[in-house]
Structure formats: C-alpha cells, structure tokens
Amino acid sequence: MTRVKAGMVLALAAGLMATSAGFAQQPEGKSRRRRVEEKPLELTPAQVTELTKVANERKLKVEDLFAAAKTYTPSGVMDEYVLFSSGGQSGQVFAIGVPSMRLLRSIAVFTPESWQGYGFAGDNDPVRAQMRINGRDVTWGDTHHPALSETGGDYDGQFLFIGDKANARMGVVDLRDWETKQIVKNPLTVSDHGAAFVTPNTEYVVESGQYATVLGYGYATPDKYKESYRGMVTFWKFDRAKGRVDTSASFAMELPPYWQDLADAGKGPSDGLVFINSFNVEMATGGVEKGKPPFEAGASQRDTDYLHIIDWKKAEAAFKAGKAEKINGFPVLSLATSVAEGLLFFTPEPKSPHGVDVTPNGQYAIVAGKLDPHVTVFSTAKIRDAIANQKFSGKDEFGVNVLAFDAVKEAQVELGLGPLHTQFDDKGYAYTSLFLDSAVARWSLGGEYASKHPEKPWTLVTKTPVHYNIGHLCAAEGDTVSPDGKYLIAMNKWSVDRFLTTGPLLPQNFQLVDISSGGTTMPVLYDMPVGVGEPHYCQMIKADKLKSWAVYPEVGWNPHTQSLDPNSPKQGKEGVIRDGSQVIVNMTAIRSHFTPEHVEVNEGDHVTWRIVAVERTQDATHGFCIGGYNINLSLEPGEYQEFSFVADRPGTYPIYCTEFCSALHLEMMGYLHVKPANAVGSK
Ligand code: RUQ
Ligand code: CUA
User: Fold this and answer.
1) How far is the CA of 591 from the centre of ligand 2 (A)?
2) Which fold has domain 557-679?
3) CA of 142 to the centre of ligand 1 (A)
C-alpha cells in the first residue's frame, strides 16, 4: 500500500512537472496575445437591447458607455502609453498603462521593497549603501518629478530620473530592466524640489533646491538669513554610455535664499537656458511662535517673485574653466561669479508661482502663479534679446540683473483660481491645472501655434472639472518637442466622494481626460485610485518607445553593473567553499530546485552567497529568502545576485523560493544549517 501511494505521488509529481514545463514553453511557442478582430464591429439589434439593459441596470449614461469603450482594454491587449508617475512618500515610481489605467509595476527607488528584492540583500547590499546619508540609513523618499531621458527634446525611452524632495536625492532608473541603478545625494542641501528635469539631450539632469539653507550642512540662526542662507541649482552630468550620473563632472550654482521651485529646460531656440521659479523673495523667516508673521503670510507679501533664467551652457564653460569653488567638496559657482559671467538673470513673475513649462517649440516659458488667476507667458526670444541688449529694470539685493518684465512678457491669460502646472498637445493648446477651481483649463497658444486651432490666441477655451484639488497634470508626451495630444492625466490630491472610504486616509485620484478633440469637448473617462503614496508629477511615453528586456541578456547577469558577472556560479560547479570562517556559497536556481539544497555553516561564519537564476523563459522568476536574516531576493531569468551576512544566530533555517514559479514551487526549498559554536563536535 505504501508503495502504491509512493507511486501515485511520483506519477502526480511527474504530471505536475510536465505541466509546469509545458506552461513554461507556451509563451515562446505561440503568442497568447489576443488577436485583433479584422472585421469591424457591428451590433445586432438584440445586442443593442442587451447592452442597453446592462447599462440601465448599472445606471450608466451614454457618455459612460463611450468612456468605457475608450478605456476598456481586453485581456491580452497592450496599452498605448506608459505613465511613469512619482510615488510621493512611498519613495517609488509607479508605471501605469494608458488608457486602461492598470498599474503595471512599482519601481523601487528610495524605499526598500521586498518583492523586487530591493534592499534585502544582506550586510553589504549596494542598494542599502546608496540609501545612507551622513552615515544614517534614510530608507524613504518623497518622490516628486520624474524625467524621462530625451534626445533632441523627445523621450528616447532609455532612462528615467526621479527626485526625492525630502532628502535632496535623485534616482536613476534604467528602462531596459526598470530597476534603479543609482541614487545621487546632493552634498549641498538637505531637501530640494526642482528635480528631476533634463536638458534636451540629457546632457544634464537639473536639480534646484527649495527651502534655503546654509549650503553644505552649515549652521546659522534665522537672523543671519540674508547673509548665510542660500538656494542652489545643481547640474548633474549624465553619462549615457554608463547609464550613470557622473558626479565628478557635475556642478552647482549658488542662488539667493529665495525659495526656488520647479524648473524646466529650454529647447529649440531656447536650448541652453534653464528656467526656475521662486517664491519667498521676501526672504521671510517665519517665527509664529515669537509673534512674527507665519511663513505663509510673510512669503506672500510682494506682488511678484523672480523667474530665474540660467544660461547653463555658459555655466558649464565657467565650471570647466575652473571658476567654481568647493562647498562640502562639491564645485559651486558663486553668485558673484554668476553675475560677473552673465550666467544668471531674473525677471519678475506674478505672486508665488509654482510651475514653469516651456512650450514644445521652445519659444515660450509659461509660469503659473498659485495666487494669481493668470498664467504668464514669457517669450524666450525676448528674454535672449533683453539679455543681449541689457534691458534691465534693476538688480536684486544680491546684484543679479533683473530683465524688465514688459521687455520679456508675451501674454497673460486669465484661467481661474490656483493655476499650477502646464502641459501641451498637438493642436496648439496648453492645459493648466487649477488647484482651487479643481479643474483642467484648456487654452489657446499664440505665435506659430495660432494657425493650429480656431480660437483667438492666448484665450481660455474650456475647463473640465476634476475631483478634486488637482496638482500636476500630464498629457501624452506633453512636455516634449512633439506632444501627442489624445490623453491627459489629472493628478488629484483629494478623492473624497469618488471611491469607497478606506478609513481616514484616502487614495489620490488619477483621472484620465480625453483631449483628442479640440474646442470645448474634454470629458473625464476614468478614475484610478492611487492608494500607495501621494504622487506629484508623471510623464506619459508612447509604449513602443520602450525597449525593455524580456529576460536578462545572459545567465549570470548582474543588474547592479548591467554586465555579466565573473563571480556567477556555473551549473555543475555549485557548492560551499570554506576558508577559515569565510564561507562562499555557489548556488543555482531553476524550476523547481536550488542547488545545493543543504548549506552548512558554523555560528559566526561570514557567509558570501552567490546565486544565479538559470532560466531563459520570460516571467520565470524565482525568489530566495532566509527568514530572520532579513534577506529576500527576486531572481529574474538570468539574474545573478550576491549577498553576505554573519551567521550569528544558530539554528535550522528553511530557505525557500518566494515567487510562485511552478507547480512544484513549494518544494523549491532547502535548509541553511547554522551549527552552534558549542555543539558537540564543533571547534
Ligand atoms: S509639485 S503638485 Cu513637486 Cu506641484 Cu507637487
Ligand atoms: Cu522558484 Cu518558486
């Protein structure tokens, strides 16, 4: 009877293995993607009746049916765009398909994330090492602004940069494997805001500060604000071939202690310039606890702040000519140098602005002032002319030349309350988020865009209500030299009555807006709750521009170096190598076993564990965890990982695959035996 049972178990296991092997081959053999019907759809009268019945039962209106038809994406049909969204305080980036609004992936950047095995690779994890600031682990970020790498001002689909406002850091994601490769910490400042924004060929990734501080972790009391506190902008040099920021070729510029805000790089005729907003040119220092006006009042007294205009090509030349001074080891062009060399100019911009956005043709920079119902349009040609011909209205308190507002202003357009950010389409329209109005405004651009739309240039065309309190918005490729139009995402901060209540903490609401027809038509198509952090900006790229790897290029690939790793174990050569108390484990993973399955070490051993997934089938991912040692890896096909730890707690540790990889996934396990120092027979 026992034998029969064993036989049955073996037969069952063989069947399961056959099933798992068959399943594994299927995606390579024939595509399981849904076929696109070639015959155009025609509804029979009976189907119309049935559809109407379903719609009535669900209390849907005709426009809802159209919205569903425009967004519903059947199983196996791919989205047209990928939205890369900041993940706010989650510290991550979210990738979302458009128009389906399906969450495709979270990309771990500033926060350890166990599913991706990000930051759970033992004592010398290179991910954790990058999360250290001044010797302390900082394992979260407040991600605000993603920037896709650009070539000629267009997204090229190669890299993604994301700023961490809370800690003045920037992450670099490689879009071949959608993994973070680098975290760069700004040595000058604690926190920032204007990151990340790229120059048109990703020569530099721009990071501007926000709350002024004493650069380089200096100290000064608020009464020394004007002398000691400073703002800054940093130009991180991007090395595309290496896929890394080259910190040794990067530099910064000292700025007055106004609170610099968002940035954008010029393009086309304005390539070479960078624009940065500011607020609190009042240099208010708060102190409500001492009876002084609070920051919110002190920083909003004047009618205008300063738009910063930086000639980054000239600044780069000054840096290369050795004109920078070091602060905390980092080269900084002083304000005096910037003024003397003509690198920095200001022009007045209406009250407490927030976003500055350059039009696709590079001819205008649009500033939205949160306390002003207008957007202000600056002409970049007029800015260049005012710089060349010294059309100044004066200097600021730090000696920076101020370009006369009337000499550089092109237009002002009244849109509504609380304008923040602006994006563009292919029909000569601009779209601005209105925070206080909870609306998206469509308005008409002038100049060479005037012939693209029927409206009078520089006028409000229509507003669509969104729900609620919109911050950023993003149109399809809407900040490139050639926007697509079609879709726009309203990134709403509040969602009060849109979804079921999820306790007192509610999700944000991403609303998909149809901007495909011009004029006054601009319906909301879909609501997507985002319950994993409060995103700020996002960018939407045409999906076919992304050239993602299906599996790692070769077995033994190290994603940290993006190359084949010479230390990767070879099949047939697995095992444990001991040298005193130094132990090296060479392990392979394949459906459905690890080799070796038993690993014996002694208490106190220093263990270096090398593990490679010997798989070539897409999606055949394994995991690897050691409970109690805070170790979990995600081993995608071909991936090699190395981790180390001190085996300081003896015991018998089941080790197992954490990804349901096959029918015999539960059997994909082994034991780590950590022999106690005082065990019988130990040294
Ligand atoms: S900022 S809306 Cu970084 Cu506008 Cu958030
Ligand atoms: Cu490998 Cu589960």
Assistant:
1) 6
2) Immunoglobulin-like (2.60.40)
3) 11
The pLDDT of residue 18 is above 70:
no
CA distance 211 to 560: 33
CA–CA gap between residue 278 and residue 259 (Å, rounded): 5
* Interatomic CA distance for residues 575 and 561, integer angstroms: 25
β-pairing, 606-613 with 582-590?
parallel
Q: Closest ligand 1 atom, CA of 193?
A: 3
How would you write 39-72 as a 3-class SS string? CCCCCCHHHHHHHHHHHHHCCCCHHHHHHHHHHC
Q: What is the pTM of this model?
A: 0.94
**Intrachain domains 81-545 and 557-679 with the same fold:** no
What is the number of the ligand closest to the CA of 664?
2
Cα gap 127→114, rounded to integer Å? 12
State both tokens at 175.
């879009």
Q: Do residues 628 and 658 lie in contact, with contact meaning Cβ atoms separated by under 8 Å?
A: no
The residue count for the chain: 683
- Binding site membership of 409 for ligand 2 (Cβ less than 6 Å): no
| Exposure class string for 218-254: b at 16+ Cβ within 10 A, else e | eeeeeeebeebbbbbbbbbbbeeeebbbeeebbbbbb
CA distances from 297 to 283, 289, 302, 368 (A): 11, 14, 10, 19
Q: Does the C-beta of 615 come closer than 6 Å to ligand 2? A: no
* Domain 81-545 in CATH 3.40.50.1370: no
- Is the omega angle on the peptide bond into residue 548 within 30 degrees of 0, that is, cis? no
538 lines ligand 1 (CB under 6 A): no
Residue with CA at minimum distance from ligand 1 atom 2: 471
Q: Which two tokens stand for residue 358?
A: 């350059």
Q: What residue segments make up the domains of the chain, in order of their start?
A: 6-71, 81-545, 557-679
Any ligand 2 atom below 6 A from CB of 657? yes
Nearest CA to ligand 2 atom 1: 622
Is the preceding peptide bond at 468 cis, omega within 30 degrees of 0? yes
Nearest atom of ligand 1 to the alpha carbon of 145: 3
Cβ–Cβ < 8 Å for 327, 188: yes
Whether 20 has a pLDDT exceeding 80, the answer reads no
d(CA 484, CA 382): 28
pLDDT tens-digit readout, 266-308: 999 999 999 999 999 999 999 999 999 999 999 889 999 999 9
pLDDT at 2 over 90: no
* Separation of alpha carbons 429 and 458, rounded Å: 9
Helix/strand/coil percent split, the chain, to 5: 15, 40, 40
Separation CA 405–CA 530 (nearest Å): 41
Give the pLDDT mean for 504-532. Answer: 97
Confidence of residue 106 (pLDDT cuts 50, 70, 90): very high
215-245 tens-digit pLDDT: 999 999 999 999 999 999 999 999 999 999 9
